[in-house]
Amino acid sequence: MADKFQNFINGQWKDAKGGQTFENRNPANWDDLVGTFPKSTAEDVNEAVAAAKAAYEGWRLTPAPKRGDIMRKVGDLMVARKEEIAREMTREMGKVLAETRGDVQEGIDTAYYASSEGRRLFSHTVPSELENKFAMAIRVPIGVAGIVTPWNFPMAIPTWKIFPALLCGNCVVFKPASDTPKTATMLVQILQEAGVPSGVVNLVHGGGGTVGMGIVEHKDINLISFTGSSAVGKTIASSCGKTLKPVSLELGGKNAQIVMDDANLDLALDGVLWGAFGTTGQRCTATSRLILHEKIHDKFVDMLVKRTEKLRLGNGLEPNVDVGPCVNEGQLNTDHEYVQIGKSEGAKLLCGGERATEGELKKGWFYKPTIFTGVKQGMRIEQEEIFGPVLSVIKVKDLDEAITVLNGTVYGLSSSLYTKNVNDSFRAIRDIKAGITYINAPTIGAEAHLPFGGVKETGNGHREGGWPVYEFFSELKTVYIDYSDKLQRAQIDNY
Ligand code: NAP
Ligand code: MG
Q: Does residue 250 carry a catalytic annotation?
């Protein structure tokens, strides 16, 4: 019998009102049923939002340092359960254990950062232009935050949103991706155990169109934080635009790594293997394009193909596996369609390009790490997010052309440059249009205490991670206190 999981509303674990459920299976082995989860409807969303709204008064008035104390307990509980969560995460979405451990660690880092923010939540205190008058801006919570997240970082991304939302004094209604409901459940169990009061965090499982959109459109949800595809992000932004609901969007990417002719090629090789094929290429920051200086192009491609062909596919829970499965059949089909598109566009397929079905692999959604060379600017495989283990190699003559190619998509999340030339590095940092630039490191590797996010269609200008996310989850109230005992008119009496 598979485990049966529930929603968490107003401090109670409960089934969806309609009684429907959906299955969550292991993408490395479909025979392994991770569990069944409630397929919720608008009724469940309504109940969760009402609970959050009712809990808001008490939570808003809880001192931020006390909210921070709860976040510290959350971090401690995550440390204690790190291995268990990592294993369950690998089981439900496939990435290898080293990476799921890293995903949980990012949540732990985010919890401890949030805990410390409880004693800061800084804003500005500045002098008034008038005598005997005091001026400052303070941070206040906003209300009920709707949180909708993807499956590829099923612990880290929800924590990036939920912890700052709570620390700032908001209540939360959380809809995780349908591919990763178990990790989300473990996170909410921890929040409950750490002492988050009933109604402050509510978990509603179910589909994006019903539960996700139900949250986005709900009149008592005061702000939305979403990470996912640009297509869904645009739909959410238009919905929020109608009622001027604040919305933070972290969306797709088409990230590139540039390798110059003076680079340490072994280092650049390790970087691109990790960036392109880690998490089976299913990261918003995945290296999807490799831009090579013409002088090292042929040599580097040779080195790359040799190493790529040695990558071991398999169940991420087993030791020595480098690459896990695609998350589901739909993603595997998308990868394969893009391979056909690449071939028809005239790119040259050097390795991969097909499903892996040897032995146990036939029971899962495995796709061989794939490399195309001869990719030209403007080809669809060069422009569109694939979200799989498919790397497009583009040859360029110099740094200017490399940056032009890198900048030539609608996205702008992560970017990387391998070179030993300090002048080239600084020019790239100045001219690359992306939210993140790495020098001599892959496109992967965000740290929890720095801003994370992208430009252009990767988002709408907000950042997660570090301090800026606290700005999104709070509003500023400007306060003037006049202790002069007379009417003082700004801009008039003092000039
Ligand atoms: P997705 O299909 O956009 O789904 C993301 C979340 O939105 C899921 O919870 C999904 O629910 C829900 N959803 C789907 N349709 C919705 C709708 N009409 N209204 C409201 N919610 C809806 O993305 P994904 O496939 O899970 O994740 C991959 C994408 O996320 C990629 O584009 C990747 O680049 C992006 N991503 C970006 C970042 C970043 O920080 N920039 C980080 C990670 C991933 P269901 O699961 O039930 O469909
Ligand atoms: Mg699954």
A: yes
Nearest CA to ligand 1 atom 12: 208
Q: Please tell me the number of the ligand nearest to residue 40's CA.
A: 1
- Ligand 1 site residues, Cβ closer than 6 angstroms: 148-153, 157, 175, 177-179, 207-209, 212-213, 216, 227-229, 232, 235-236, 250-253, 284, 385, 387, 413, 454, 458
pLDDT tens by residue, 330-365: 999 999 999 999 999 999 999 999 999 999 999 999
Is 284 annotated as catalytic? yes
**Nearest bound ligand to CA 387?**
1
Of 148, 333, 386, 390, the one to substitute when testing ligand 1's pocket (max ligand atoms within 8 A of C-beta) is: 148
Length of the chain in residues, anyone?
495
- Distance, in Å, from the CA atom of 443 to the CA atom of 437, rounded to the nearest integer, reads 8
Burial of 384 (0-12, 13-18, 19+ CB in 10 A): middle
Mutate to test the pocket of ligand 1, among 232, 409, 464 (most ligand atoms within 8 A of CB): 232
Q: Which of 168, 171, 240, 284 is catalytic?
A: 284
Report the pLDDT value the prediction gives residue 255, as an integer from 0 to 100: 98
Full 3-state SS string of 100-121: HHHHHHHHHHHHHHHHHHCCCC
| Distance of alpha carbon 341 from alpha carbon 332, whole angstroms | 14
pTM: 0.98
Q: Could you tell me the distance, in angstroms and rounded to a whole number, from the CA of residue 495 to the centre of ligand 1?
A: 54
pLDDT, tens digit, 9 for 90 and up, residues 411-433: 999 999 999 999 999 999 999 99
Distance 41 CA to ligand 2 centre (A): 21
Which domains does the chain possess?
Answer: 7-251+459-478 (3.40.605.10), 255-439 (3.40.309.10)
Task: Write down the catalytic residue from 47, 88, 92, 250.
Answer: 250
Please determine, for residue 1, whether its predicted confidence score (pLDDT) is greater than 70. no
